[in-house]
Amino acid sequence: MSKVVVGGGQGFWGDSNDAAIHMVRNSNIDYMACDYLAELTLSIMQRQKLRNPKAGFARDFVGLIQEIGEEAYRKNIGIISNAGGMNIESLVNSISQFAEENNLKGYKIGYVLGDDLTEKISELQSQGVTFENIDGIGDFNEIKDKIVNANVYYGHEPIVECIEGNANIIVTGRATDSALFLAPIMHRLGWRNDDWKNLARGIMAGHLLECGGQGSGGNFDYDWRSVPQMDQLGFPIAEISNEMLHITKAPNCGGLITEQTCKEQMLYEVHDPANYITPDVTVDISRVTVSQDGENRVRVDNIEGKPRPEKLKLSIGYFAGYRVSTLLSFAWPDAYEKAQYAAEIIMKKMKRKGLKADEIKIDYIGLNALHLNVANMDSDYVKDLNEVVLRISLRTQDKSEAEKIVPEIAPLQLNGPPGASFFGGRAKVQEVIGLWPTLVPRDAVKLTSHILTI
């Protein structure tokens, strides 16, 4: 085919389904890819699965498919998503139930297994894999017995196999965000696995779509006031051929596709524009050009590609103790001064209780919780604040240590400086999941593609 049209239907687990529904109903797309995963997301899903063997995937995706699955099937729009998370087979079962209930005879569900290496860590270590931290910190043996999940980031290959098997919908685990988009583009345009320039173009098409509304005016730092109808934000769509790459959006919806929106998304999470590393290709956008080519239509040129890396990234989640965050608000006058004094009281109490904490963080929401040490701390400004919320957060190795602070917050309404207001109920202690990024040889990963026909 001379051109393939791919839409981005989801930016993260918990994103709105509205734009994806509008896209399927109102645009002429060939495929829609939906990204649900982040590094911590998989650890959360694994915890869910341990509590309930049928959980561990993005249930939001099932709701989306119930809304547009039949229409996408009738229109021959392929759906691809990494919503399978830590329990791909359970998601497949939910989708097959939907297909059977809607009498979608011949409906094909593709799925990819093999990215979860949690049970293979010891075997790989015995084969010489060191699991050295990418950031060069820590000792792997200290976290080995605390591992919650270990998922490898993989590329287009098994997804393409599912497409070649005529799957109507494909679900994966930790496929990279951009590979969800690259796979159908490669398939339709007939690109080779070593066509680095075109692979780079396909990856950047996916990168410009993978965050959903962030690529079409959402979270728009350049000029968020100029974005029309943000309450009906449309998500970006890529039109790509062997010659051109355009970014646009569906008709009759809000949002904005301009040079600036595309540039912001293009640079998102790209540490080195000349070497953006993915499992499929190393992308070079150091000489890229972005130009307006019509209303809500942008052309992207001069993307270059280099060979893919020899190893794959493995994201390991491990149990790293417990955390708790407590909140207490204070009103004008002298809100900040009162909050500071309340923090002093709490810390004196914690000292008397012998608190053992790995980390204690005290900040003041409304003043420096976001801006930290670059916040405006001018005395006149600080003194006249309308309100401040004191937040004290602890991270401990022992749950009982984190619990020590919980009963000390509410009493400050009557036993501390004036104007305190306690809200939200007592804080709850939660488990902390740490992240251990590392690299593994490609041949350590055995991915398999499957097709279930209804």
Give structural notes.
The protein is globular, with a radius of gyration of 25 Å. The two termini are 28 Å apart. The longest helix has 18 residues, at 335-352. By secondary structure, the chain is of the alpha+beta class. Strand 7 and strand 8 (245-249) form a beta hairpin. The chain contains 14 helices and 19 strands. 30% of the residues lie in helices and 25% in strands. It has a ten-stranded mixed beta sheet, with helices on both faces. The protein folds into two domains: 4-115 and 153-309, no CATH class; 316-436, 2-Layer Sandwich (Alpha-Beta Plaits). Helix 3 (59-74) packs across helix 4 (88-101) and helix 7 crosses helix 8. The mean pLDDT is 97.
**How much helical structure, as a percent, in the residues?**
25-40%
Low-pLDDT parts are none
The shape is globular
Cα gyration radius (Å): 25 Å
**Count of domain modules:** 2
Total helical segments? 14
Strand content: 25-35%
| Widest sheet, order of strands | 11-12-8-7-1-2-3-6-4-19
The chain-level mean pLDDT equals 97
What characteristics describe this protein?
454 residues; alpha+beta; 10-stranded mixed sheet; globular
